[in-house]
Design a protein that fits this description.
This protein has 493 residues and is α/β, with parallel strands linked by helices. The protein contains 16 helices and 20 strands. The radius of gyration is 23 Å and the shape is globular. The protein binds 1,4-dihydronicotinamide adenine dinucleotide (NAI) and magnesium ion. 1,4-dihydronicotinamide adenine dinucleotide (NAI) binds next to helix 8 and helix 9.
Length: 493
């Protein structure tokens, strides 16, 4: 074990009174209630967070509305907003050690991985800090006696409902573009991982974001989350999470027809062709499915392998899996941490039993790991002999479980890859250039990785086909989804 020492500022944050951020102030829930926050590596309660209700969402939306309407953010010179956004990125960077530990304690993810995510969060702010000065409308080629131009304006109050798998990164993917476009924000982090969102709001204030522009209400999905999704004074909700809740968000939006963007589940194909570099493909496929204990919406959980290399590939995959160390998040040598909660532990082990019952063969793993104490550890598990119509090949497990499916050629690979209700991501491993691009074109998914997996960049748009959702995050696409255009007609007569 190479357990890191918990930093004093992390201990202080955890031991302080639970708080959220509304109108620039650190506040408790109106009801005074809290909920427990667990460390998944030990299964123990580490702190409490305010159990925000509809009343708290009302307060936060009112603060965000006032901040939007009086122009304290939108009305700032674009260059000034740019400067503040850059500063948030720098503050996140400066606080990476603290944020890393908080994220690791809250979610169970290894510190080595969490540190990279905190870096990504700071990078996203730096990327969007360039945008305020580059968002503008157009002039239109209309009749000679008219002058028509468009204004590109913010939407207003934007809600963000965040999952627990990448708590800070998912929050930043929403907050940074929303702010770059001049909106104000109400965030509802996941109840499993509320801590870094609160720190983010505090860092925004420290960077000079005016009070009320970024608000965070911690609380439960059916309470605070549902109140935000159905709120009549919220102009947009961006949601990342389960497809099941995504449907509820869409229904809840009908009241005031707020804009919605949904980034939902996946069952992404990872295709290995016989001409692939096998070592690279095995390692990449392993990371693609087991990163973050498989709790990744883009996880390459269906590993499609061409028949002629099937057995060799499975052996390499098992070997690559064995090299990854399972352990607590705060251990620097850990490659894979626990799953996030008792609920996820039950769900994942339940699916492993389903796979065994469906007749798939466990080639490695297949059990809860009990030698690491009471934490929610699951052995990285590879099933072979999987048929694409089995439940373990069709349903999102969201844990360290891979399903290897044999395919005979390119055509069958594309057919099986697309035989899912989801369409978030995919990966293709081959050294044949034309084959790679043919498959990329044939796959119905928002992202295709060729000879790599799990890559993200602030400039590259991200989102789903089919039931993996709609709308795109990151890149210039986010600027479109956080703004609206107004056409202004001027008579020249
Ligand atoms: P979830 O979809 O319930 O939670 C995501 C967020 O939605 C959380 O902030 C939660 O508080 C909120 N929420 C829940 N119910 C809500 C409601 N009625 N109205 C508004 N907000 C609500 O996900 P959960 O239950 O934590 O995980 C279940 C499964 O969902 C996972 O096993 C996984 O398959 C999938 N999931 C997918 C994610 C992704 O990135 N695509 C992220 C998290 C979960
Ligand atoms: Mg749920």
């Amino acid at each position: 074990m190479a357990q890191v020492d918990v930093l004093p500022e992390v201990t202080k944050f955890i031991e302080s009174d639970p708080r959220m951020v509304i109108g620039g102030a650190a506040v408790a829930a109106a009801s005074g209630q809290t909920f427990d926050v667990y460390d998944p590596s030990t299964g123990k309660v580490i702190t409490h967070a305010p159990r925000g209700s509809a009343e708290d969402i009302d307060r936060a939306v009112a603060a965000a509305r006032e901040a939007f309407e009086d122009g304290r953010w939108t009305g700032l010179r674009p260059g000034k907003r740019s400067e503040i956004l850059f500063k948030i990125g720098e503050l996140i960077k400066r606080n990476i050690p603290e944020l890393t530990q908080l994220e690791s304690l809250d979610s169970g993810k290894p510190v080595s991985i969490a540190a990279g995510e905190m870096w990504m969060a700071s990078e996203v702010f730096r990327y969007y800090s360039g945008w305020p000065t580059k968002i503008f409308g157009e002039t239109n080629p209309t009749a000679d006696d008219m002058f028509v131009y468009s204004l590109r304006e913010p939407l207003g109050v934007c809600g963000g409902i965040i999952p627990w798998n990448f708590p800070l990164v998912m929050a930043v993917w929403k907050v940074a573009p929303a702010l770059a476009c001049g909106n104000t924000v109400v965030l509802k982090p996941a109840e499993q991982t509320p801590l870094t969102a609160v720190r983010l709001a505090e860092l925004c204030l420290e960077a000079g974001v005016p009070e009320g522009v970024v608000n965070v209400v911690t609380g439960l999905g059916p309470e605070a989350g549902a109140a935000l999704a159905s709120h009549m004074d919220v102009d947009k909700v961006a949601f990342t999470g389960s497809t099941e809740v995504g449907r509820k968000i869409l229904e809840a939006s009908a009241g005031n027809l707020k804009r919605v963007s949904l980034e939902l589940g996946g069952k992404s194909p990872n295709i290995v062709f016989a001409d692939a570099n096998m070592k690279r493909a095995a390692k990449g496929s392993m990371m693609g499915v087991f990163l973050n204990s498989g709790q990744v919406c883009t996880a390459g959980t269906r590993i499609l392998v061409e028949s002629s290399v099937h057995d060799d590939f499975v052996a390499s995959l098992v070997e690559a899996t064995a090299a990854m160390k399972l352990g607590p998040g705060l251990d620097e040598t850990t490659g894979m941490g626990p799953v996030v909660s008792q609920e996820q532990l039950d769900r994942v082990t339940g699916y492993i039993d389903i796979g065994k019952g469906e007749g798939a063969e466990v080639v490695t793993g297949g059990e809860r790991a009990t030698d690491l104490g009471d934490g929610y550890f699951v052995q990285p598990t590879v099933f072979a002999g999987v048929k694409n119509d089995m439940r373990i090949a069709q349903e999102e497990i969201f844990g360290p479980v891979a399903a290897v499916i044999e395919v005979k050629d390119v055509e069958e690979a594309i057919e099986v890859a697309n035989d899912t209700v989801y369409g978030l991501a995919s990966a293709v491993w081959t050294t044949d250039l034309s084959k790679a691009h043919r498959v990329a074109k044939g796959i119905k998914a928002g992202t295709v990785w060729i000879n790599t997996a799990g890559q993200y960049d602030p400039s590259v748009s991200f989102g789903g086909y089919k039931q993996s959702g709609f709308g795109r995050e990151l890149g210039a696409h986010s600027i479109e989804t956080y703004t609206q255009t107004k056409s202004v007609w001027v008579s020249l007569k």
